[in-house]
Amino acid sequence: MDTPSRRPRHAVHTFPLRYLVVVPILLALLTGYTLFVHGDTNIYMLYSQCHARSRVPWLSHIPVIGSPACFLVSFFQKAAVSVSLRAIGIMALVLSFLAGLLTVSTVEAARICNAPAVLIAYPTGSWLVFDLIGGAIVWQLVIIPAFFHRSREIILARRREGPAQLLGPADPTFGEVMRHLAKVAETVAIPIAVALGFVVPSILLLVVDTPIVALVWLFFPVWVSLIRQAARKIVLSLREVWHSSCHLESNRLALVAVYAIPIICSIISYALFLWSLTQPDDRKEMTRSTLKFIIINTFFVGLTVLYWVFVEAGWRVAAVMAIVSVLLGPGAGICIGWIYRESAVDPDGGVTVVVVGGRRNSEDDGSSEHTPLLR
Fold first, then answer.
1. Integer distance in angstroms from the first to the last C-alpha of the chain?
2. How confident is the model at residue 29 (pLDDT cuts 50, 70, 90)?
3. How far apart are CA 55 and CA 51, in angstroms?
């Protein structure tokens, strides 16, 4: 007997974009207010020293950009390099979270369905603005709305085309392989890029006390992008099979290869952080001030990501991400949550799936309000 089945419809199917972005906008306002309230004279003094050319002279004397560049380098140098175990533990935890977020962002950039969305398919610019200027506000006002906008585009396109889209439309970004990575080579290029472009510079940032290392680290989005492109080109030149598309979450070996590094970094940094809590907090005053800003930014980015997951995949995925973050660290939380998200997103929000003799057939349920989103 034919058995129709429906998945629960998530918020992204129900609400227009203008409603979905209300929460990120409120979070952006709250982020700015919190940073303003917790600002102190140490941060202003740090910039004043750069403006007076008394810090990092070879950098601060550069016209126009010298003072801001000196401030950013000094800020992260003070936050990351410390004799305090507590400071190292906190910064390592933040960096492992960024490693997980960067991996997820790069994976989404490589998916076929996101190719038409410039901000998603080419994340280097957004990451640079996040790193150099905007912090959490960039995720709240730029990156997350870009993903919501793309999801709504897919929903509306499938609503117009109907269930026939599931059987192989002309536009592959709306087709059955839409959630595939465009090239199998990405399963090699992404982990290499994250490891060499972000993890290695982050380790150097924690252990080498020099402004040059901090300056190099600040441009990690560029290094990740360049290394990914180079690695992908090399892999594609080796075998023809690397040119085909693949669904990452259906290939266990590729899944481990892509997410292993950020998860391992998260577990190690989380263990270091927990151990540091058992030791005296001997952070210097300037280190406390810089880390406070970084912690506030990271906290609000985490809240924004949880909201993103809730809107597109439901509360269960958000709960899994939060629980794993508590157990293994936020970097592992976002990676494992993202893997679970792929099986929980609503691919057929407006189509009744009927199983007939082992085949999946799609029949329109007559509803025009909810439509397929992700496959």
1. 26
2. very high
3. 8
Radius of gyration of the chain (CA): 22
Interior/surface letters 51-84, b for 16+ CB within 10 angstroms, e for the rest: eeeebbeebbeeeeebbbbbbbbbbbbbbbbbeb
Contact between residue 189 and residue 239 where contact means Cβ atoms under 8 Å apart: no
Pick the most confident of 6-15, 114-123, 149-158: 114-123
- In the predicted structure, residue 52 carries a pLDDT above the cut 60: yes
The answer to whether 105 touches 259, Cβ cutoff 8 Å, is no
Pull the structure tokens for residue 144: 């997350």
Q: For the beta carbon of residue 2, count every other beta carbon within 10 angstroms.
A: 10
Mean pLDDT of 350-371: 37
Please classify residue 22 by burial: count the beta carbons closer than 10 Å to its beta carbon, then call 0-12 exposed, 13-18 middle and 19+ buried.
exposed
Contact 349, 373 (CB under 8 A): yes
Cβ proximity of 203 and 165 under 8 Å: no
Asked if the model's pLDDT at residue 368 lies above 50, the reply is no
State the residue for tokens 């490693």: 99
Which of the four pLDDT bands, split at 50, 70 and 90, describes residue 162? low
> How many Cβ atoms are within 10 Å of 30's Cβ, its own excluded?
14
DSSP letter for 181, please.
B
Q: Which neighbouring-strand residues pair with 111?
A: 181
Q: How far apart (Å, rounded) are the C-alpha atoms in residues 117 and 104?
A: 16
> One-letter amino acid identity for 38?
H
The single-letter code of the amino acid at 122 is Y
Q: How far apart are CA 230 and CA 10, in angstroms?
A: 38
Mean residue pLDDT across the chain: 85
Q: What is the DSSP track for 216-229?
A: HHHTHHHHHHHHHH
